[in-house]
Amino acid sequence: MATKSEALKWLAAGYDITPIQVSFDENGHASKKPFLSYATDKVNKLWVLSNWKKTYAIGLVLSGEDYVVFDFDDMNTLKQFENEYPVIKSGVHEQSVTGRGVHVYFENNEGLTQIIDIIKGLDIKASKNNYVVVNPETDLDEVTELPEVLWTFYQTNKSNGRKVSNNNDLNDFTIHELDMIVDGFGEEGTRNNNMSLLVWTLISLGFSKRQLYAVVGLANSHSRLTDSEIEKTVETSWRKWTNGN
User: Fold this and answer.
1) Fewest beta carbons less than 10 Å away: which of 35, 36, 71, 186?
2) Are both 99 and 178 inside the same structural domain?
3) 222 and 137 share a domain?
4) pLDDT tens across 51-79, in order?
5) Domain of 137?
6) What is the pLDDT of residues 178-225, one digit of tens each?
7) If you write DSSP's letter for every residue of 119-187 in order, what string do you get?
8) CA dihedral defined by 89, 58, 68, 154, rounded to 10 degrees?
9) Kind plus residue range of the DSSP H or E element containing 60
10) Do 77 and 120 touch, CB atoms closer than 8 A?
11) First-to-final CA distance of the chain
């Protein structure tokens, strides 16, 4: 995770960053979710000073014209790739937030877009308004141009993977949470957590407290949480948000 000062350092260097919530399952697999709708809600110094939490990781928001990231699931995948494409060693390397994978950065001068599973265990992160979770200690000043052999690899294999849309208005974060409005908060045992997630999503999107109660009430018509449960979550979340805690 990243401290407030580390986030400010990246922001001051001119990078477009966004806070990322990272959680781990019992097997150590990481689930990464943006706290903001990063395509439209841009982080500035005041936001970081007021709202950044030590549990956040730094998400580097890509423009589609700055960096391309070779995102390897694990070291074995990287080593196998190095055997065929040793030039991958010339990129800027960092360990992923899971501790198992590796990100390798190059300049994106060729208009590459994001491809998931271009080969097994390797994603290409490059799309406009996509993000990659960065290590605060990574120095991107050392990034070099994408080697021609890796550009050829991309062109040769891109049809094998899944291309991701560059929709600037919607992303997995907003779609999932806003679906709760019509679908409810899910199964028993998950409803309070999901309700809290929706509340924080709406707060980050600029909803007033009155609007929060209205929208959460609509979602709750499918889930039947008690009024006291809703009030506790809304009031606590609102207080934390407005106090910057």
Assistant:
1) 186
2) no
3) no
4) 899 889 999 999 888 999 999 999 999 99
5) 4-163
6) 788 888 888 888 888 888 888 887 886 788 999 999 999 999 998 889
7) ETTEEEE--TT-EEEE-TT--GGG--BPPHHHHHHHHHHGGGSEE----SS--HHHHHHHHHHHH-S-S
8) 80
9) strand 56-61
10) yes
11) 17
